[in-house]
Design brief:
heterodimer, A: alpha/beta, 6 strands, globular, B: alpha+beta, 10 strands
Chain lengths: 226, 197
Amino acid sequence: MKDHQPTFTTDRVRAVLLDFDGPVCSAFAGYPAASVASDLLILAARSGAGVAGAVDTSDPMQVLRILHRQDPHLHPQMEEFLTVAELASLAQTAPHPGAVGVLEQCWASGRPVAVVTNNSAEAVAAFLARHGLQHLVEGVHGRDRDDPALMKPHPHLLEAALRQLGVRAGECLMVGDSVTDIEAAHAVGAMAVGYANKPGKAERFRALGCDLVIHSMDELATALKA
Amino acid sequence: LRPHIEAAFAAEQVTIDFAGFSSETLHGALQEPLDRVREGRTRPRSIRIRILVTDLSQPRGLPVRSDTGQDDPQARARMRRIMLRHTQGIEDLVSELQHLDLVPQATACTRVHPLVPMGKIYLINRTQAFFGFYPVTEHRVPLGQETARIHDLMGRDSLLFHHSAGPDPDSVGSQYLAQAHAWFDSLWNSIAWERPQ
């Protein structure tokens, strides 16, 4: 079922900011997110973290944020572990065909693409290179290695991408499958495309005022062709 | 370049003549100065921008495939779309200033011609010229199922050479500006035509 809001057109879109985990591939398919999160906590506890036992989350990024606040001296180790976990997981996964279609359509229509992700830039760049996609992407803006508080929904990464691409936020489309992507897009003034790849997301995205809700990346490639 | 364009907008009458390949860098350089006009921080009384770029609706000297030296319609169509997007973007940004009554006279106009430029030039307020060479570079690009290598122009990071016209018409700077304007006008008025939508 298509969620195409008839008033939204892509002719004003000069550039695209693309979330990675979800739209491009399943980043934790090879090493499930919940396992990464609990392994991070185990590592933290073994390294003498204070309140690791009280953390209850299956989101490794959330664990990273919490540990950074409570035990900042352990952060470099935690960041390294998460990056290595992402590298290992991504080695076992491939890009969604629809995502490749979007990248190619952006390239063909002269719209630069930057990846804006809470994953590590190093892991994402390695993935793109391995799958021959690096020349379709102008830049990868991954989480800040020193400060996980700057991850989406914080607009920091989007602002860096906009500066690199040299475009105005209002001319950019941010494509993501999470509420944090939409929030970050609105924070900088970019248009937002919500990729509803799970039940319930479409309603949440519409409630947040997404410019466009898609159920497959192919829909976005089609919209960009117009 | 950007500080010079920003300074140019402090004048009452602003004129920018640009000749290049796609106008991508011009678009980038104009964003902030035009934002400042929109915010009312600078108030020129007139803005006239003329853009002269290559017509890519037919095969030209560039872009071409590296292997055959022949035109590639897909790569050329893509570059044409980039040029359209940037020139239309500049035209919209500028005409909006007049529609919003921020600047009494604000126009940007694009003409295309069949030549492939060897460099790009910005002529600002008839007193400043910035010239940069366009090296031919090879890029790997996706074309359908395969990846091809094409030759095209790389204008993004080229070093710009600056000339200023001064009170002495015989100075190098003044002569450079006079010659550059004569060159631009000759192209603008002879073989160039209005960019089709």
